[in-house]
């Protein structure tokens, strides 16, 4: 995570201030729960809540204490005691540091997931708007980078919409994975703390109690979370790659918006480069890479070891901040994408009608020609066109074996663009629920 | 995927015979659907179905054709035509190779997922049985590899159960991700094929129509599928690592079953090594590694490129076969695991009562000692025990600052093991729905 | 590793026959070394060598024994004893299985490295030949997929040559990493075997003795080896991606060779797809992915655990066979690549002279115009050209601010293509040592 | 990279101040080189050098300009012009941004490599010192976590030394990979800049000219660099894992140094956890993960795209800062490691002499017993010991089949510890060049 690729709302989730505030809330809720079940005096719990809520935690002071005791939660509790006074002794009773750390991390991840869901909603809205805008704008469909058959630019965007809609569902599932709370003590047996405390805190924080924890919340949950972010990043890469291709000099069917003051190149003043989507390609590589250490974190030793911690201090912010930035950037790109329908049409016409070859092939088989013969007939007329030696329609009409089976009108009918657009509404209805 | 780590049922899914059979079914169902909507003669579709169903496809023959035409689906269709006769010309009408290939791959993956789900069920059954067997068997809980507080061996297994139960849910979701069918033509516009064909084939194969495909079924689905397998593999690694730790010479609380004829080491005849779980650790690394190329596969160019294909020819079998083998092996390990409750008790007693230090700490604070002072008192009596210089209980009783606050009986009460087991039923009920 | 992407010579290295042959050589050399230092009778060592050399090891028989004893080396030694007779008792004295397994794996890897080095030599030869063939063929250089300035097709190939030449040096270093031998006993102390045995065997097998082994040869060596293969694969992906771009319908400056009988698409007969380089892109993803489990293999427990073994049984063949195939395929692609210099020239002319904008910018600054003003002048004439509204040279001449500083001839001189080619010989000399 | 796991010297390399200083040096050296070959006035180059050298670049000002022009190098040049005055127009002539950016990145990486080499030297020194300290301290060697045969603690450290010595050599090679300079213009043709400028700047900065660049320095170099860091990190993980194992409650042969004020656990005051080495395990996962996006960066499109940039802005600092911190932390751990030779001896004696089983096996075969029979004899006496039913030496002496072949004295001789230490000097001489 670097400032250049970070947005303030997501970054704030990972600030020490936010972290200590969440720690406090966990501790104070737990103390209150202990009061509810009669373990600590209710007034003490009240004082903890009130004094802590009113206070601003002094990050520098906590850091100073940590340098001495070499333990972050103890440092925080020491500082809290400075604020709360004698009632602080009722705080953290029967709890272990991980109860605080793991629950806090999950609170941060759920908040991060909420921001990412909002990012996805914005992206989906932009994609839907642009998809309908270009629903029937013909453009060449390409497989292997080679012209295949016509499609529409709206269909390209509908595919992107459907893909990010799936990403949204995955993120909802991933959020549920890590929306758990553990207040279960040193090895998860609730020896020193009543399970009702966990239930109370979980409810206050909008989490679910972890069914069985072992000091730590099990890290398969987090592995699944970060793996899901990696998949979302891969979808970002796909759409970014599409834009990069469309903006190539030879294709130029669409372009990232280029603001008036912007300079494309220090050396070549004419250049307008797809730098945003190239940037997104790189960011996707990063978010994807964080899935691996998250998976390696699963196999903690026995009831817990702390090897996951350094990983999570990094990938927690790195993955969520970078993905948040990337989604917002992609939304901007798609929202303002400059689209050139005319160039699309020109490119479509570029191969001299070859894009209609399959339709000719089918028409021939329907006239009773074998598939193998049809293929041969079509290919022998396609190849000269490919070499720039003529127009596909003309050549077909002039081929006696073809004209023996199909009239000129029948051949020409194969070249109708509308033929390819007739199911656009069907697909739009599948994707958007409307056409 | 290598034979050593493969089981026949999963391997069979990836045989050429199975693949061609599925290709045939897709083609034959599609031809039947075309007959239903009046595009091809019903009798022709019937003949295709009957002759193809009765035939055994000749893999060597198809391979020979492919070497000539350098295209696998065309090779298959050519061979099918040899079997079916002239009606073969109605097959594959308006379809593109990817319609067959992608739908087939998803059929294979769903079948693989079904086997993996059965594997998980078997593993869950073994874990549940053993968890109840050792529900109240005390054992030391360890954080950082250091003795922490008592837990039970059943709780360790309950945690594993809960983790694999989550893995099961994830796999169900992952299966749904890739249970789709696409019969949408060259760039997914249904230009040459009616969407009803896709719906018909999907239903016959137990799949869902892909809402919008672009010759290919989008690969974010597969990325999610293989990422999920990677997470499951990581959970395997966790449980395997636990067994490896328990079997260490110095711990020896449990052992992999060692069959009579087995030799542990060519050089050291006494050795009984946790080779199965070490092996599982390595297999987990492999399954996890396949998530990455699956994610890189997402960003295909434009409507498709074929870079994903070589990856999937490898990781399709490699990931599913290896994971199937690993789950079955882990089930065997857990089912036959030799458990030594006595050693567990001996290890538990090893630290001279230090494992009860937190309880003493809590008791002191409840007597009104500040948390900081309590910590100091406990630590100064714990350190000599750690150095082997005495027994914790004795030292505490002899400490005047401690005895000023707690009677000997109160101190002794802190050393009661039952204290740690009182919530086992609560946790079992959360995990298994019964205790 | 699958047959489709495998070549026989590399595959043979990983066959059980080769493995058992190498095992035998290690054991027989070691026995001979033991004879040299007087530990076993020389005649016995001679008999072992002769009978073993003459024999064909029965893979099925060894497998059957292994199923019983569950230990591969013991199974082999048992079979060897069946062949050699009573003298077999002198075999494997003081050795441990890993002495055989690890040394064998390194022999296999060095042989694999030798094949890969030969592959790289063939690729370098093809690249050099084609680089000189197109040394001065002008083509547009592209940054961000956007036309930048002219370069030559030979320079593109020279860059690829330099990159694979670096890969070759890396592979030489990687080969040295794993060209070690360990015959050091159960924990590497040479307690039961003299270090001279290790030296003897190492020399016979063309290896170096491992300075300190601990039953296993340390796996950082193998991590480095497989990471290096991953880097080479990434360079394959780069060149493959270049070809894929060049073959795009809109670019079409080069094409993979398309054999007469080949069919590009089952549906679209005109298509000629860059399937080989797309395939290489996927294979690169696979080879790259194997670096990860190889790195995870490094941290074996204490003197060794066997978790690396299953990983290596897979990635040993998978990585080397796939990379061998990929290098050979890439060599074929580059050797037969169909190049279209005319299209290159057409594409170069496509942007109406904009590719010369930097040269105009420089000329203006050399006439005393500030960099900022020059940039502004160039950009305001470039933008209309970009929009298809005119020719860059004409517009510049018509711009009064430009013509106030430069004569028409001076402006025109900026559009000379030769200007960009003047250092080609310099670069070729750097890369090939000749121009 | 986060502050918690960062050291100031390495962090400084990645500060904007350092970056702009390097940018300035590249630009100023290049201007001077242009003066040398007569392209710009020598006095102008002198003024650029002097004014720039004396100035402090205003990072905030440059950022402000960048926000407007959206191009970092142009922003810097604009600011430089504010400092230098009219002579600034001679700066950057014929260069492209990447000339500055790529060369700067390589300068930063070589400086980072130098720090890492110094880190490795410090680690090697610590390992050598401790290795000699415990050269002959007996400890049990473990394979599969199971007691195998005796070794010495010094040998464990010698192995670590040898491994990090290899890492050092790899890093030297990796440093050479990225110690190159490119000043070759927009597509690397030197069209607007003389190759002598590149040579001049390279020499001034201690770099080698990149033989053929294409606006960018090829990223296979960086992939190799970061992959090497990943391998080094994996070796850190290995040694860290060893310490974690040794500190386990049941093993406790060594411990991380635990400072007086330190608290091990907020809940369990007696605990002393191997938190530093657990932390290193996590950091290793992170450094390793950065190898992947670095490899994906290789396949830039055509002469360059900028997708690598965001990746490198992150992994450049992240990988080097984290690895620097990890190496320094590991050095501290090994330097201050508390070693318990007595516990080592106790653990060694734990298995009732079973660790000598192989020696007994060998002695029996040397007495003419077949390998299979020897194995059987040893195993039948080992198994009761394993079950805690007796002492290996006593049982062997009582076994009539054994005593028929070996006298009691001969059997006892097999239990001599010195036997296992006799080659320690040989190994030390191999590793350290002295014993």
TrEMBL record, chains A, B, C, D:
This is Adenylosuccinate lyase. Pathway: Purine metabolism; AMP biosynthesis via de novo pathway; AMP from IMP: step 2/2; Purine metabolism; IMP biosynthesis via de novo pathway; 5-amino-1-(5-phospho-D-ribosyl)imidazole-4-carboxamide from 5-amino-1-(5-phospho-D-ribosyl)imidazole-4-carboxylate: step 2/2. Residues 352-432 form the Adenylosuccinate lyase C-terminal domain. One of its GO terms (molecular function) is N6-(1,2-dicarboxyethyl)AMP AMP-lyase (fumarate-forming) activity. It holds the Pfam family ADSL_C. Its EC number is 4.3.2.2. The gene is purB. The keyword Metal-binding does not apply. GO terms for biological process: 'de novo' AMP biosynthetic process; 'de novo' IMP biosynthetic process. GO terms for cellular component: cytosol. It catalyses: N(6)-(1,2-dicarboxyethyl)-AMP = fumarate + AMP; (2S)-2-[5-amino-1-(5-phospho-beta-D-ribosyl)imidazole-4-carboxamido]succinate = 5-amino-1-(5-phospho-beta-D-ribosyl)imidazole-4-carboxamide + fumarate. InterPro entries: AdenyloSucc_lyase_C, Fumarase/histidase_N, Fumarate_lyase_CS, Fumarate_lyase_fam, Fumarate_lyase_N, L-Aspartase-like, Pur_lyase. It comes from Saliniramus fredricksonii. SUPFAM superfamilies: L-aspartase-like. Belongs to the lyase 1 family. Adenylosuccinate lyase subfamily. It is an enzyme of class 4 (lyase). Keywords: Lyase, Purine biosynthesis.
